TrEMBL record:
The keyword Acetylation applies. It comes from the Eukaryota. This is Troponin I, cardiac muscle. The lineage of its organism: Eukaryota, Metazoa, Chordata, Craniata, Vertebrata. GO terms for biological process: cardiac muscle contraction; skeletal muscle contraction. Gene3D superfamilies: 1.20.5.350, 6.10.250.180. The gene is TNNI2. Pfam families: Troponin. It comes from Ailuropoda melanoleuca.
Length: 182
């Protein structure tokens, strides 16, 4: 047991060491990723957004505002055009999906609820209120009376079965059987 405990402790220590090394590597990778993103952001801003020079005279400020408004208008037009394209493509997608469902024959059916109705209520709903149909099946059943047959009477009148067996045993009993049958 002593060797096995030492071995388990060594395995646990190794796992802990590997886990800490992996966390250190992940932390350095995250830091590198952050610095890379920051440098990309600075490069993009320096390329696309020139530094702002505020002019001193009023006419230069007005000219700058006109240029900015022209750029805003161009950006708004692009935005509108993109939105129209997106709406058009979504409409086309919906139409195509509808055609697909039509071709497959799979329409979305609403979930049906189970409704408890008697047979009379169903017929009344189907045929209307002017038709009066009664579906009381128990009332329509015929009563069948049992007919007393000779065999049933014989079975009732037999009585003790041991006497019956004793009577039919031997040659005399068989003779009686043949006489009663014919």
């Amino acid at each position: 047991m002593g060797d096995e405990e030492k071995r388990n402790r060594a395995i646990t220590a190794r796992r802990q060491h590997l886990k800490s090394v992996m966390l250190q590597i992940a932390a350095t990778e995250l830091e590198k990723d952050r610095s890379r993103r920051e440098s990309e952001k600075q490069n993009y801003l320096s390329e696309h957004c020139p530094p702002l020079h505020l002019p001193g005279s009023m006419s230069e400020v007005q000219e700058l505002c006109k240029q900015l408004h022209a750029k805003i208008d161009a950006a708004e037009e692009e935005k509108y055009d993109m939105e129209v394209r997106v709406q058009k493509s979504t409409k086309e997608l919906e139409d195509m999906n509808q055609k697909l469902f039509d071709l497959r024959g799979k329409f979305k059916r609403p979930p049906l609820r189970r409704v408890r109705m008697s047979a009379d209520a169903m017929l009344k709903a189907l045929l209307g209120s002017k038709h009066k149909v009664c579906m009381d099946l128990r009332a329509n059943l015929k009563q069948v009376k049992k007919e007393d047959t000779e065999k049933e009477r014989d079975l009732r009148d037999v009585g003790d079965w041991r006497k019956n067996i004793e009577e039919k045993s031997g040659m005399e009993g068989r003779k009686k059987m043949f006489e009663t049958e014919s």
